[in-house]
Amino acid sequence: MPEVSNIIVWLILGGISGWIASMIAGKDASMGIVANIIVGIIGAFIGGWVAGLLGLGPATGLNIWSFIVAIGGALILLWIIALVRKR
Fold first, then answer.
1. 3-state DSSP call for residue 31?
2. From CA 37, how far away is CA 54, in angstroms rounded?
3. According to its record, how does it sit in the membrane (predicted)?
4. Which one, 1, 7, 18, 39, has the greatest CB density within 10 A?
5. Cα gap 55→75, rounded to integer Å
6. How far apart, in Å, are the Cα atoms of 85 and each of 10, 15, 26, 30, 79?
């Protein structure tokens, strides 16, 4: 079971990566902190999956590569959400 401090760090990094992705996508004003955290965490899973498919290596641990992968995955998620909302 993860320690509480690890969970807090992952939530903070999820929020930051979701926030950065929302700023890049131009969605920052319409998203709150909870949405940023959710987008960042789900984006980390999506980014890790895509990085694995592309053979870019695993994004494990708390490091800059994992952060970049999470931001990329969050951007993919925001793009998918935008496509679904247009329909």
1. coil
2. 25
3. Multi-pass membrane protein
4. 18
5. 19
6. 28, 22, 15, 14, 10
Let me know if 17 is exposed, middle or buried by CB neighbors in 10 A (0-12, 13-18, 19+). buried
User: For the whole model, what pTM was predicted?
Assistant: 0.82
Which residue's structure tokens are 């890790």? 48
Q: Note the residue count of the chain.
A: 87
Cβ contacts of residue 37 below 8 Å, gap of 6+? 11, 14, 15, 18
